[in-house]
Amino acid sequence: MRWRILLALALAELLAISPWFSGTAAASELRLLWGWDPLRASWITVAVQLGFVAGALVSAWCNLSDVFPAPRVMLVSALLAAAANWSFGALVAHGPAAALTARFFTGVFLAGVYPAGMKILAGWFREGRGTALGVMVGALTIGTASPYALRALAAGERLPWQPVIQSSTVGTLLGAAIIALFIKEGPFAAPAARFDIHQAGETFRNRRLLLANAGYWGHMWELYAMWAYLGILMVPRYDASHSGFIELLSRTQWWAFAAIAMGAFGCLAAGVWADRDAISRLRQRSNVTIAAMVISGLCCLVGAALVHRTDWFAAVALVWGFSVVADSAQFSAIVSEVSDPRYVGTALTMQTATGFALTAVSLQAFGWMLGRGHIREAIASLALGPVVGIWAMWRLKQLSAAETSA
Fold first, then answer.
1. Count of C-beta atoms within a 10 Å radius of residue 275
2. Quick one: three-class SS letters along 249-260?
3. pLDDT in tens, 370-381
4. Does the pLDDT of residue 249 top 80, yes or no?
5. What are the residues whose beta carbons fall under 8 Å from the beta carbon of 30, sequence distance 6 or more?
6. pTM metric for this prediction
7. How far apart are alpha carbons 224 and 220 in whole angstroms?
8. CB atoms within 10 A of CB 35
C-alpha cells in the first residue's frame, strides 16, 4: 500500500509543481517584450520564490499541515496554484507588475503542495524514508524541469511561449485530481496537533535542527540559481533578438531540461545510499549530503572555467544537475527525524520557507553579476553554498557522535 501511495504522491508532485519555472522558461521572450536586462528578468523567478516564502511562513505560523489533514492542504493549494499560473499567462500583456503579482501568488500556493507532500510521505515511511523522499523529490525535480522541455517543444514548432503556461496549468489540475483520488494520511502520521505559535521558532532553538537547516541553506544558495539560469548560461553571448534565436532556444532548453532532470537519478541514488545504515541514519544522511555538495561545489568551479565552451559546459551541467539536488531529500528526512513528531509539518515548512528566502538573494546576486558580464564569477560564487553546507553537516555529524557516546 505504501509504495502505491509513494507512486501516486510522486506523480502528483511532478504535475502540481510544474508551474514553478513556467515563467522562467519564457524569460527570454518576456525580457524582449518588457525591455528587461537579466537582473530585472530574475524577478520572474524571484517572485515565485518570495511567494513561496510568504505562503510557507503563514503555513508554519498557523501549523496548517499539522492542524488540518495534509492531503486537504495539498489539494486546495494545488487548485489555487493552477489558477494563479493561468492568471500569469493572461496578465503578461497588461505589463510586468500584474504578471509578477500572479507569479507571487503561484509561489504562495505551491508552498502548500511541497511541504505537505513531504509530511504525508513521512506518515507512510519509517524504514526507507530516505529512499521514499528521494523518489518524491526526484519526481518534483522532473516537474520543475518540465517547462524547459515544453518550451523546447514549442520553440521547435515555432510556437509562442503561452502553451508552456497552459500545459503546466493543466498538469497542476491533473496533480490535484490524483491527490483527491489516491492520497491519504499514513499509519505513522501524528494526530492533529493543537495550534502552537512557538513551534515555528524551534528551527533556531533545536541545535540539531538548526545545523540541518544550515546545511539546507547552503544547498539552496546554489540550487535555484543553477536551475533558473542554466539555459542562459549555455548561450551567454546571445539574446532574444539574435536571428537564429528560435533554433538556439530549442536546443538549449532541451539541454537545460536534461541537466535538471538528471537530479531525479541523483535523488534516488542518494536516498538508497542514505538508508543503508539503519543504526546511524543521521550520520549516513549527513555523509550523503556532504558528498553531494562536494561534487556540486566542484561543478561550480569547473563550470565557471568552461562556461564559454558550450559542449564542455553542457557535459559539466549533467553532472552538476545530478549532484545539486541529490541531497535535498536527505535534508528533509533529517528534519523529519530530529523535530518534534507532533509538528513535523511545521518544521518542514519552516525549513523550506527559510531556504527559499535565501534563494531570492542568490538569484538577485547572480542576475546582477550576469548583467554586468561577470559570468564566470557568478557561477563560481555559487560554490559558497556548498562550502557552508558541508561545514554545517560535518558539525551535525560530530554532535550526533558526541550524543551517541554520552
1. 23
2. HHHHHHHHHHHH
3. 888 888 999 999
4. no
5. 23, 36, 41, 44, 92, 99, 161
6. 0.79
7. 7
8. 8
